[in-house]
Amino acid sequence: MGTDPQTSCIFKQRSSIPEVEKFHVTLNMEKEEKKLVNKGEEDEMEIYGYNLCRWKLVLVAVGVLCTGGFLLLLLYWMPAWRVKATCKRTTLKDCEVVLLRTTDEFRIWFCAKVRIVLSLGTSPLQSPASPQDKVSNGHSIHVFENLAEENKNGPQKYLPIRYFSHHSVKYFWNDAVQSFDVIKGLDDSVSCSSIHADHSTGLTKVVHDYRKLFYGVNEIAVKVPSIFKLLIKEVLNPFYIFQLFSVILWITDEYYYYALAIVVMSVISIISSLYTIRKQYVILHDMVAAHSIVRVSVSRANQEREEILSTDLVPGDIMLIPSNGTIMPCDAVLVSGTCIVNESLLTGESVPVTKTSLPNPAEDPKATGDEVYSPETHKRHTLFCGTTVIQTRFYSGELVKAAVVRTGFSTSKGQLIRSILYPKPTDFKLYKDAYMFLLSLVVVAGIGFIYTVVNSILNKVEVHIIIIESLDIITITVPPALPAAMTAGIVYAQRRLKKIGIFCISPQRINICGQLNLVCFDKTGTLTEDGLDLWGIQRVENARFLLPEERACSEGLVKSPFVACMATCHSLTKIEGVLSGDPLDLKMFEAIGWILEEATEEETALHNRIMPTVVRPPKQLLPESKPATDQDMELFELPTTYEIGIVRQFPFSSALQRMCVIARVLGEKKMDAYVKGAPEVIASLCKQETVPVDFESVLEEYTKQGFRVIALAHRKVESKFTWHKIQNINRDAIESNMGFLGLIIMQNKLKQETPAVLKDLHKASIRTVMVTGDNMLTAISVARDCGMILPQDKVIIAEALPPRDGQTARINWHYADTLPKRTNSSPAIKSEDIPIKLVQDSLEDLQMTKYHFAMNGKSFAVIQEHFQDLVPKLVLHGTVFARMAPDQKTQLVEALQNVDYYVGMCGDGANDCGALKRAHGGISLSELEASVASPFTSRTPSISCVPNLIREGRAALITSFCVFKFMALYSIIQYFSVTLLYSILSNLGDFQFLFIDLAIILVVVFTMSLNPAWKELVAQRPPSGLISGPLLCSVLSQMVICIAFQAMGFVWVKQQPWYESWTPDSDACNLSSATDTNSSSHGNQTLHDEHNIKNYENTTVFFISSFQYLIVAIVFSKGKPFRQPCYKNLLFVFSVIFLYIFISVIMLHPTEVIDSSLELVCVPYQWRVTLVVIIIINSVVSILVENVFLDMILWKVVFSRDKQGDCRLATPQPPQEAADRWAACFLMPLFSCRKKTPQAKYMHLAQELLVDPEWPPKPRTTTEAKAPTQENGSRHIITVT
Q1: Residue limits of the P-type ATPase A domain (predicted)?
Q2: What is the pLDDT of residues 687-706, one digit of tens each?
Q3: Considering the chain, what percentage of its residues have pLDDT values greater than 90?
């Protein structure tokens, strides 16, 4: 009702617009067509505005009625067609419906309805005010007045705010950009000082309710769809619709039995699918809902405390963190107090992290500037949704407060759940080709349809029979059982994976895993053991390194600054009496055997300040205990033992790469400062005279051997710094003029199975890449140790620097020197075992690639932003990616996919979730959060599951090809049989169809899929799609053979001297058996053959085609190199043998019961023998063509090379070495195919780079980004002297 006056007004205004203005309006609308939402982000989409059109709706309704509802189904499958068919285009400002299209390679369409909400303002972060103050646009005021006239809720006036929802995110209309936009919380363009000044006092009830109108309920709602809704969605799948059409047609044609069989199979398939989908929803719902709704305390603007449900939180609310901890229901930034948080949801490591309050630039006189708050940049001060606050620390009387910055699906956890609920589709050539193949079958069916109609009309067949038979030819050509047949192999592979401890929640991904040619591995917990072990320490005295020591807990060192630094410089805390914290800190503290004691809450409240944590050695380590003589202690009384109190702690900063503590040996006047961190950073903070001259060489020796090295430093704090001054001092004032103490050497051991698994992958020509959050040099060393990088290979470190001080971004190229390995370590893979190359698919006659790129997360980010044209080249040779953030891991996977790699990802943490989901085949080694996002989860936490998954994937993929080829041949054989019989106005009988479809096809399909995977990975890779040379040649050659022998039998039977047009009185068998003839004649006389089923042509075609189904089943059931030989598939072997015997018996020794059931006629014994000869010759020809001609030639030339265009020969396998050598000699003249440009981008790029003299970059050179004035793509290469 409220929109009618507005609409009429708009129409009046439009009618008065001059023609020129109308033209401008049209132009504006055309411009609006190119509007984008989420611009520059991963989910960027084009957006178009539409309004409902009544006359189009009427036309669509008529079309739906005329097509029997099929048009409605078509519009359901095609959202873009649905909107364009029922709506007219308009501007976004006035639209009722929006049409969205992703800008990625998939170009997927979505539609959403625009809704209106009434509000007191247009921006949630502004205080609600009177609309007269807000609205200056005449059109807006006009709309407001019209709405106000009809609004009877009182004198308060509201503004209409337009929005739509898509993928659990609301997009509101933004007048400033004239488009829809996502409303951000406090994480967008809000400064740190503003959070303290404007957002730290809490919200009034009015402002809270106003904001909730925009942000909605703070809940990550994963609704479990009802079974009915899931059923409707599943049943409306095009395949099931076609099956429904086929079943109706068969019932009309009285073909009940097979229709029933298809219905039963479809029902089983639908139930199985519904169970799997609903189970995934329930698991995800339970994971999210476990702690999604809790009661929280918030502080209002009037300082009052209020208890509300977490679902009512909005950005700007001040949440009070309870002292006993909680699970965070939102993203919030600490504005006061300290928290200890378990962030396993985000990092994958159950390590408590200390979160401190956000620094206030207004209170820090030395602050360089007021920076914009960002949850990622200020993660040390941000409590993320889903993480667990274990306990809080605070000053007495001051509460631990956090300002809510993001709620619902905008939070870090919400974004993770959205990536699981709405994953980016994975492109796989098999499924594209399957649809193309079906389309070609539809074309063949169309030809058969036309032929049947024309032939029937010429022979004056009744209309209803013409309709049924012509439609029947379509169901014969496009088999309705195809989806069930294709699913069988995947289901069997899923069962086999389950037996070896790999669980799958996305069965379709199993096939894709068969194509993986690159696998990314996380390092810690995946390639290496979870924890670090203390290998030893190397102290410094008088600026010289002492010999390495294994133990740091000796009596002589107990009071040394080195051990004091190990005892105090950490972030460990006691949680319920158990020491918790960073694994490195734990190992370091456990190595010295000291004891840590923390003050209780009562002690803290008593002293009105945070009491220091105290550490002390065990009594047995102390040489003697002397009572403390100094009673003028500033902190508190001490017992007569050696203890150190930690007075102030500066937590570890990844940006600074160090942490610092200020401590005091109880009983001494002066305090001590201890620093621990990256050796290079610590050395730069020390007095030069305290750092050994051989510091760099010693450090490099350790890092090259894969050790994690931590440096320690110490200084005495001047006595002028009191306890109060220390609490407010800047860390820069402390972290200078330090004395270098020495090095702690930690060891991260490889998992026992890691080298062997990587060796198997390399032998199978599968690239391996390391993606880790660890230090780069450590990662490079681990890559060498496990065989990912061979000893003689060069490693090029790409150090990218962002633009700074007017300079453009640049990349500095460094060559990492290969130092001698330690004596107890040897390369996991010997160089003579594997070709020395990074790109395993490079051509053997060209130069081998012997270099790898390594870079950290910061460099990767700079390269992605400023050197986009170098990204494909770097990922083509990139092997080590260190210090990578979770989103960067996902970006790397996408970058590899962009150059046509089939990427696998193996990780163990929630920080790998995005990459696990985005990869073609993601496998989680953890059964926690990561397993929900990952298609595969391994119960065994080792990478040995990766080759197993690829082997099963290859077996499932080849099985899918076999089944598809078999079903295609089944369709063509039956199609040709029916077409031949239609030419004489005959057909196959109902029981003949039933015998072929049920007894032969279904039995064969469901048993031929049972072949297990081959026992090892081979270098050969299966084709990625059906449209490939070998597969097409295989299908076409068998098609020609089957058609030829079937046609030969059909024609030859007519040439026989006994042949005549069959009638019930025909007696062709009397030459061999009078008994058979009499009984047959008697049977034929008593039955009327209405459909002309009984004739010699039918019987001949039926027997030949029945054997042909079995022949192609055997021909297509290949084993090596991807599956076990078919003779090991006992069920398939028994089924085929039984069917061969049964068909041979009914052909050579006919019986009245079977003949009458199958509507067969008796033929002379000589013709039966002739049929046996035809079938034997058919079998021999089919087997020779497939296994000799195609395998010996096409397999070696095409199938053994990368299907994306690599013409190299496969790595010879010992059992096939002789055959391969023969094939190689035979095919030498065909090597010219290597000049063919590969289809895959990575192969094409590899060929280009192999002959590029400027690649790889020379050592000690710099690549500069293009300047704004330069032409696109120009770069400078500068040699640094």
Answers
A1: 296-420
A2: 888 888 888 888 878 877 76
A3: 6
Give phi and psi for 86, each to the nearest 5.
-115, -5
**Confidence category of residue 144, pLDDT binned at 50, 70, 90:** very low
What's the pLDDT band for 128 if we cut at 50, 70, 90? low
Retrieve residue 1120's tokens: 């090596």
Q: Alpha carbon of 954 to those of 390, 787, 937, 962: distances in Å? A: 46, 24, 18, 12
- Going by the DSSP 8-state scheme, the letter that residue 826 receives in this structure is -
User: Residue 61 carries which side chain, given as an amino acid letter?
Assistant: A
The order of strands in the sheet holding 644-653 is: 544-545, 533-541, 739-747, 707-717, 671-677, 658-665, 644-653, 613-616, 595-597
- Phi-psi map region of 1153: left, alpha, beta (phi>0 left; psi -120 to 50 alpha): alpha
pLDDT band (50, 70, 90) for residue 1044:
very high
Answer yes or no: are the C-beta atoms of 530 and 747 closer than 8 Å.
Answer: no
- Which residues, in sequence order, are CB contacts of 617 under 8 Å at separation 6+? 558, 567, 592, 593, 594, 595, 642
State the distance between the two ends of the chain, measured CA to CA, in whole angstroms: 78
Q: What is d(CA 125, CA 138) in angstroms, rounded to the nearest whole number?
A: 24
Assign 478 to helix, strand or coil: coil
Q: Mean pLDDT of all residues in the chain?
A: 76
Q: Give the integer Cα–Cα distance in Å for 947 and 1217.
A: 23
> Rounded to whole angstroms, what are the CA distances from 238 to 241, 433, 483, 574, 754?
5, 17, 11, 59, 45
pLDDT one-digit tens code per residue, 244-275? 888 888 888 777 777 887 788 788 878 877 88
Q: Are 328 and 385 in contact (CB under 8 A)?
A: yes
Annotate 676-703 with b (16+ C-beta within 10 A) or e (fewer). Answer: bbbbeebbebbeeebbbeebeebbbebb
Residues 310-328: pLDDT tens digits?
A: 888 888 888 888 877 788 8
Query: Residue 1261: which H helix or E strand, with range?
Result: strand 1261-1264
Which is catalytic among the residues 522, 585, 912, 1202?
522
Contacts of 398 (CB under 8 A, 6+ apart): 336, 337
For residues 526 and 751, give the distance between their C-alpha atoms in angstroms, rounded to a whole number. 8
Say what the pLDDT of residue 150 is.
42
Most confident stretch, 266-275, 338-347, 624-633: 266-275
Can you point out the beta strands (E) in 292-360?
295-299, 305-309, 318-320, 326-327, 331-336, 338-342, 352-356
The band of 1111, judged by pLDDT with boundaries at 50, 70 and 90, is: very high
The tens digit of pLDDT for each residue in 706-718 reads: 677 889 998 888 7
Q: What is the dihedral of CA 415, 418, 422, 424, to 10 degrees?
A: 20
String of b and e for 949-988 (b: at least 16 CB within 10 Å)?
Answer: bbbbbbbbbbbbbbbbbbbbbbbbbbbbbbbbbbebbbbb
Residue 725's H or E segment, with its range, is helix 723-728
Cα 1186–chain centre separation: 37
Among 773, 891, 868, 99, CA closest to 424:
891
Q: How far apart are CA 559 and CA 248, in angstroms?
A: 90
Cα 825 to Cα 8, 706, 787, 819, 820, distances in angstroms: 84, 11, 12, 13, 10
Are the beta carbons of 706 and 821 closer than 8 angstroms?
no
CA 947 to chain centre: 18
Q: How far apart are CA 973 and CA 1045, in angstroms?
A: 11
Residues 52, 54, 60: CA angle, nearest 5 degrees: 95
Q: Which of 938, 940, 899, 942 is nearest to 922 (CA)?
A: 938
Instruction: Give the integer Cα–Cα distance in Å for 759 and 831.
Output: 11
CA 1210/CA 1224 separation, integer angstroms: 10
Residues 6+ apart with CB under 8 A from 1209: 844, 1196, 1200, 1201, 1220, 1224
